[in-house]
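Regression test attached.
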Amino acid sequence: MNFRPSEKSQAYLKKLKAFMNTNVYPFEKEWMEFNKENNPDGHWTTWHEHPKLDKLKNEAREQGLWNLFLPDEQMGQGLSVLDYAPLAEEMGRVYNSAEIFNCNAPDTGNMEVLYHFGNDEQKKKWLVPLLDGEMKSVFCMTEPNVASSDATNIETSILPDGDEIVINGKKWWATGLGHPDAGLAIVMGKTDTSAEKHKQHTMVLVPLKAAGVEIKRMLTTFGAYDAPAGHGEVHFNNVRVPKENLIQNFGSGFAIAQGRLGPGRIHHCMRCIGAAERALQLAIIRSGTRKAFGKPLAMLGGNAERFAKARVAIDQARLLTHYAAWKIDQVGVKESMTEISAIKVVAPQVLQDVTDMAMQIHGGGGLSDDFPLSSFYLQARALRLADGPDEVHLGMISRLEFKKYL
Amino acid sequence: MNFRPSEKSQAYLKKLKAFMNTNVYPFEKEWMEFNKENNPDGHWTTWHEHPKLDKLKNEAREQGLWNLFLPDEQMGQGLSVLDYAPLAEEMGRVYNSAEIFNCNAPDTGNMEVLYHFGNDEQKKKWLVPLLDGEMKSVFCMTEPNVASSDATNIETSILPDGDEIVINGKKWWATGLGHPDAGLAIVMGKTDTSAEKHKQHTMVLVPLKAAGVEIKRMLTTFGAYDAPAGHGEVHFNNVRVPKENLIQNFGSGFAIAQGRLGPGRIHHCMRCIGAAERALQLAIIRSGTRKAFGKPLAMLGGNAERFAKARVAIDQARLLTHYAAWKIDQVGVKESMTEISAIKVVAPQVLQDVTDMAMQIHGGGGLSDDFPLSSFYLQARALRLADGPDEVHLGMISRLEFKKYL
Amino acid sequence: MNFRPSEKSQAYLKKLKAFMNTNVYPFEKEWMEFNKENNPDGHWTTWHEHPKLDKLKNEAREQGLWNLFLPDEQMGQGLSVLDYAPLAEEMGRVYNSAEIFNCNAPDTGNMEVLYHFGNDEQKKKWLVPLLDGEMKSVFCMTEPNVASSDATNIETSILPDGDEIVINGKKWWATGLGHPDAGLAIVMGKTDTSAEKHKQHTMVLVPLKAAGVEIKRMLTTFGAYDAPAGHGEVHFNNVRVPKENLIQNFGSGFAIAQGRLGPGRIHHCMRCIGAAERALQLAIIRSGTRKAFGKPLAMLGGNAERFAKARVAIDQARLLTHYAAWKIDQVGVKESMTEISAIKVVAPQVLQDVTDMAMQIHGGGGLSDDFPLSSFYLQARALRLADGPDEVHLGMISRLEFKKYL
Amino acid sequence: MNFRPSEKSQAYLKKLKAFMNTNVYPFEKEWMEFNKENNPDGHWTTWHEHPKLDKLKNEAREQGLWNLFLPDEQMGQGLSVLDYAPLAEEMGRVYNSAEIFNCNAPDTGNMEVLYHFGNDEQKKKWLVPLLDGEMKSVFCMTEPNVASSDATNIETSILPDGDEIVINGKKWWATGLGHPDAGLAIVMGKTDTSAEKHKQHTMVLVPLKAAGVEIKRMLTTFGAYDAPAGHGEVHFNNVRVPKENLIQNFGSGFAIAQGRLGPGRIHHCMRCIGAAERALQLAIIRSGTRKAFGKPLAMLGGNAERFAKARVAIDQARLLTHYAAWKIDQVGVKESMTEISAIKVVAPQVLQDVTDMAMQIHGGGGLSDDFPLSSFYLQARALRLADGPDEVHLGMISRLEFKKYL
């Protein structure tokens, strides 16, 4: 056993940290000011309108801090899942900063679908602009009318019709639908409901500008739009795409989804750990600089103990995430189900708890947009549902545990 | 001991429940639809623009369901704090519905200040329109630059100057500042910083239209404006009011604040319990009507157990709240500090936990404005800071506990 | 609503508290010393050998502090379940002291069975000596070979044979089997396994000296014998008793058990609350008198906050217990299932948690017999299984909750 | 990063597992039966009287499964702390089985003190018989009259007197004092109370047969003697030992203690993880083989979820323990204080929680000596105090955390 990151990972981390310090933390601050002034209504952020964003993206790309998530040597940087873990954690320290490095969800998961399951034509047409950061994408799985945590419930139909494929159905929680560059939806639906349970699903590539794609509304989370990319409800009304847009075959959608969700889930968890570290740091600094009842907050009541518990919880979550990453690298997603489900339950919850604590330390300010805490909180809260609610993951873990002995 | 509400309380509850069923639940539904259509930006609700709101208020008033919180026979309905508990709980089931009955924070607390500490002139000028629901008010205590959970930190100055009083300082988390009828601020500041620690504070009545009152900005909580009344940052720049606006004397502000916070806190807790009951009800209904993996959600994993634990937690929170109300009625706020602090810690946390659970049952929808859950969640989360953070209340309880034995 | 105990309950409490102060606390101390000296092996306590015990019982009886649990005016003191609550709590402050007042489990539950379901002959023969404290008893329900939390699993047979009844089966966790005066077992078994599920059980009175009653062994809990009364495994090998020993009818055992468990469970909870209060008191006193790192333990880390949380948890558990007692008095056990199950889950857990905390404050000493904490802990831990494990009670609560809406 | 144990560690683990399967699990079963028959009083186990124990020790030694904890190539097996982790975990699955491999506390910690700080004479005289398993030892630090979690409170005096050293003081929780072969005490006391805070302490080697060593009593934990080695109270009344028995110098005791506690603490944690794994395994097997309400317990209520949560908690505790072991190997104890304190808080708590859950699954039996659960529970509960209570470790973590930012 060895807990030191690889040389390659360390080298990238050094470069990334420098970039964060020089560029991203200052940008976070500037943008928060910019947003307060330019967005009095507060309903949608000005993130994409900030004049510096594109500059930062270009610089990140020039420095090779681009598509770090993709294990491919040519298209990404050839980093393993485990190599990527400390990098994603670092990005997680600033809300949404992963976009600066083209490493944001759901694009990363969608690019992985295209990378692993797309044919050459599809890669050229869709993967390349996504890798270039010129296009953004959404993933359409969850439906408003059924409990989509059980994918067999899905009702959207994806049917062949001559040289075309016809899509009908309603999806929501399509993350990224509010991004100005959103162009592609990967849609999951059913083709043959008489087939075996896991052979009914199909995945298809749908341009968002296709006829019949109706963006019904953007959804609020806790009353706000989870800007800058948001989540949307989108209806597919007799949408027609050419057969070339089919990913793999009719009926292979379920298997693709399983493959997609493994790395996607763990990337979320890596970022959660970085966000939790940041929240703890903010809490400690605030608690050392504000006084009440004659003492710094840090010395009051159980505050010090809460920091200690946060430290321990974060360290445990990080180790579990690294272990899951290592297992994925060694034996693949399928053999790492316990570990992936475990971090999916642990990491967002740790982020939620640490942020909740940090908010108490910050008083009212902690709830506002003056600090990144409320963004972290929403990120955590939403993640406890996204990519499978905690309860489904716990069920998965117990099933695998039973198999050992019963 | 006897756990049955008084005859009077039961009679009001019966009337109130009928009113809720006939009017408020349907209004909640209509308004949610109305808001979706008329408020695509989502940054501020349309609550006060809904054509039915004033009608409902009038009807509530005509039925005697008005100012139920005020123990006074003439100005209120002569209900004790304990009598009021089941009524406030019932209102808590629909977010913000307390306003329909002129029982919403912070107006109730402000009316109590005027009722108990205002002179006849002040009552006539300020209390009457507040009791009539014609004016709304804010309470300005928390400041951005200091840890205001320790009131001795407050920096705002309230100084006599001839026949006038001059106010200078910055306040934030002034709840209700976004209400269209907001007209009055009760401002807490310091007059003589050389006086004994608890004799330095003063409370003064400030019309929001006074010169020098600057509404700096509305604050977001979790990215949204906690509409329809919101929280604001307001600066007092050399604001001058006549001496008649002084509540009691210079230096009596701290004592008034203590008196104000007791009933205010417990009213919040009563509503939390109603909201938690509603959240549990919604969770159970949803879990019985959605299926995954071949079973209703209610039968999956630990869901049933979670409902049981929620039931127990809510019942315990209610009992503790009723007990605190009874103690306030019997021996007053000062002798009920342990109980008031206890419910202030317990009730919002129970609401947060039950709502968090209900959200998991609702999936993505639970985060959105399609259900009242996210409003309940924000209510709970904000209350864990408002009127004193949990940690300060726990400190109070332990101090009183030590006194018993040490 | 009214949270003041009845005049009668208050009068008894005053007398009981005086008795505790004058007699029981000193006895606890004397006995702890006595036991250390006379019981170097530690495997069984010397409680019943202490020369003062009988004297105390006599004095309690003379003062009318005897059989307080029984609502009957003649045989008990005519106290309602709710009246009894503060008294049982007070007894709970000293481990096992309920025996001094003839109010200890399982005798109280067994006496209630005889009181409610026994005929005149049975009352004369068995209830009278139990009420007089001359005989002690056990309740035989749990079996080693099946999950007895589901009473339909029970395998012991109770069959009629002419004028006799024949009992065959194995029971364990027969609490009180180690008491020197243990003379009677109430045994639950099945008579007709083809009958309807809840009409199969029978309860019968078995003298422990009957032929075929084999006390197989005394059971350890956490390695010790839970002295002074202990729990045993007892086998019934073709035990024969006269038909007169049948309680009610063949097949009525299940209904009797339900009736027995209601008050029995709540009495346990009342005592838990007293024990938890005592543990908190001990923790606070110890934390104020021991120093580390230059401060009393009370001022270190999160200790003060832990005391506050214990205060709140105990108060909530007491209120819930009182509420359940009130409901039993008002509408009976059957209509109070949610409340009885709720306190059965809450009260022992609160005692376990508070004691666990108090142990940390006491350091190593807290684990030893120098303090009553380890006894309280075992009491709590065992109660989370006795009379139905927590999980079964939560299941009951959720079933009743579902019925409200689904 | 790499989560695979070293080749050497894997090879030892394979051998150890075979030994456990062939010898130790059967011995556990035999001994439990043996103990029930030969120890009806239950106050002290028959572990050391079992005819097989010495045979097993010899066989372990012959197979090189001996002193695995000691990093030394000659005296131990040259395994690093990290290499040892999976081995100690495996031993932890059977209560007390570490003694079979001469790897039990407190001997391992005492041997490390002699190994690192003893001179050649001391090693020859004391370390060799300990390494041979011919002698057992105790560590005397905790005192009954002061909060010993703060070592500066210690009152025992260790004073030079010519060629002798004189020891006076009272110690308790001397673990292992009940072992039949206990021969040596390492005693910590103070020599110069006017010296700098951390230069006052001295450690000295005291033969238990020395004049003036008075074993006052064996202490109960939860009413039993924590057999087979137990914890004792021992008084040192003018005990005289030759100067040769001084470890290092007068005044170096504090530093030695710090060095001792690092590896000692982590060994405890490794064993906790093995015990927790065993408890989970037992719970799952029991829950799959017992039925209630028509289903295996595994399928009832929240049981499956509890198993999943236990799985995740154990995995996280193991990873944190391995990480701490790696850090100790890489940078030493002093630079690993956060990690050592973290596992010391986490691992016993996880064991306590998992065992508590497993007990609920086992019903009454789980509390008895029919299963190893109650032993595991006591092990966990005692460890939350031994080698520093949780609260002190959390305080340490928070202090180090503050240093990062304040």
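Expected vs. actual: identical. The two ends of chain A are 31 Å apart (CA to CA).
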